[in-house]
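Illustration: aspartate--tRNA ligase.
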Amino acid sequence: MQCILDIKNNDNDKNMMKWVSNLPQESIVDINGKLIKPEIPIDSTNIKYEVHIKKIFCISKTTKELPFLLKDANMKETHEEGSIKVNQDNRLNNRCIDLRTYANYSIFCLQSQICTLFKNFLLQNNFIEIHTPKLLGESSEGGANAFQINYFNQKGFLAQSPQLYKQMCINSGFDRVFEVAPVFRAENSNTYRHLCEYVSLDIEMTYKYDFMENVHFYDSLFKHIFTELTKGENSKMLIKTVKGQYPCDDFQWLDVTPIFTYEEAIKMLIQHDKLQLKEEEILSYDMSTDMEKELGKIVKASHHTDYYIIINFPSELRPFYTMYKEEDPGISNSYDFFMRGEEILSGSQRISDVNLLVENIKRFNLDASKLNFYIDSFAYSSYPHSGCGIGLER
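Result:
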């Protein structure tokens, strides 16, 4: 909100103006004044009123020189030469100040709203919120990308995901569970989309006839979040603020979400000369990040949507607990959801037969003895189920 101190106003004098002008930037003040709607609209603030100051009190004075100016950090991202930029290292080394920018504050508010919408939608659909261990005796998924720690002179690991525990809850008779919690991945990936620690929104649920029932449920969850964020006045203002600093086109989605098989997705890339593969090489190709981005552009041009789903990935590209098609074991009953060519959800039908599970663990060359606590839960029967993980930061 814009505040005006005018020495022509009888309630103020030159001494007050001098005192205010000497206040360091980012000091905290209390203001007493009159709320006015100006004749000329204000473009620089979200609130279209201004306060004509009568009294001002300093509550907390800034005692250290600012590492950068907030007006510079609030400037629109641009590639123009000569534009003022605050580099990322400076921002991250002074995160407390960086989070005072309008865009960052709005991002945190939107993140909070997304989590609330996610939780409320699931709770309204009879889900149970769970809290799984994050300090483990073995890595979560039998993989190498786990942080190892010293746990009282024994090996300990930080959880890569709640995957095994989610399934054990299903095997305990919990039809629908979810968790919002941090996970840890020891991935030495120098990309903007891979983090060693992030917040994962995890879901696991049973189904009656086919795993695609759950895919459509996850789809309805996303559309609920999209709709609520774009119709609420507060969230619309937050999105506008973020786009003011990081310009982008409006996000688009369809009433009926396009669903492609992995094979169809690869063929689209081939048809648009983004990829050169022989027919027999398609199901052994692991789509790269660059190709995912290219596919997003193709889908946007052909289907006019930023949001779509890919199913039936090659089995060799998915984790050991992923169920495969009975008629073609080389293809899995799996799915990824994409926004603008970025994977935001990954999931699958899980193997619920204990014998198939043990067989697949061996096929992946994993030590079954380290997963006995998980395997044993399937020996007492298991409902057909599927699940997914969603990266909140993405």
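Reading the tokens back as a structure: The chain has a mean pLDDT of 91.
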